[in-house]
Amino acid sequence: MKPVSRRTLDWIYSALLLAVVLLSWGYVIYASTVVAQRQLRKKYPDKIF
Which superkingdom, per the lineage (predicted)? Predict the structure, then answer.
């Protein structure tokens, strides 16, 4: 296995960090929409969302 350059390692770490940040924000947005829908269903049970 040949050695990997520092620039390549920096690029890989940056891409991994970006993926983690995007996944975590996606989870936060998804969870907040689920909670909002539950609250709306509880407040207005006769409506369809």
Answer: Eukaryota
**Furthest-apart CA atoms within the chain: distance in Å:** 65
- Count how many Cα atoms sit within 13 Å of the Cα of residue 4 in the half-sphere of its side chain: 8
Enter the pTM of the model: 0.67
- For residue 49, what pLDDT is reported? 62
Alpha carbons 35 and 2: distance in angstroms, whole number = 49
Token pair of 28, please?
């936060």
Q: Give the mean pLDDT per block of 10 residues along the chain (49 residues).
A: 91 98 98 95 84
Sign of the torsion formed by the C-alpha atoms of 32, 38, 43 and 49: positive
